[in-house]
Write a structure and sequence with these properties.
157 residues, alpha+beta, Chitinase A, domain 3, 6 strands, 28% strand
Length: 157
Amino acid sequence: MRIRIVCLIGMFAALVLTGCKRDSWLDWKAQNAAWLAQNRDKDSIQTTSTGLQYKVIRQGIQGTRPDALKTVRVRYKGSLITGAVFEQSEDATFAVSQVVEGLQEGLKRMHKTGIYVFYIPQELAYGSKEQGDRKGSQNYIPPYSTLIFEIELLDVY
């Protein structure tokens, strides 16, 4: 009987602790959703049918836009809704197909020399998956995070 009670207490404690962690991420998920809802109502923000939000800072030169088969050279800064920067580069080159879905969609809207800010909902980013080295590190992205990318499209190959 005593072992049964100890086991039940252990199982209850595990459920409570698991629930607390899950609730903290659900709270973060709700904060991000609320932030996006508020951001969507700003005058300069445009929203696509997928939920990607963006703001055009500079339209850029008319001409070739990137597609999934192209490679781009960009200057960018990636941050969270808290303002924490998780990644940035003054000169990065990558295939459009190698980035999260929301950033792929956004890049395809840009023209060379254009500057956009993309507000990528977690469904178009990493969803429930954590990214980065570890919680608390500079490049850490919590699950359910909205990603904010300020991007200047330098070239399309």
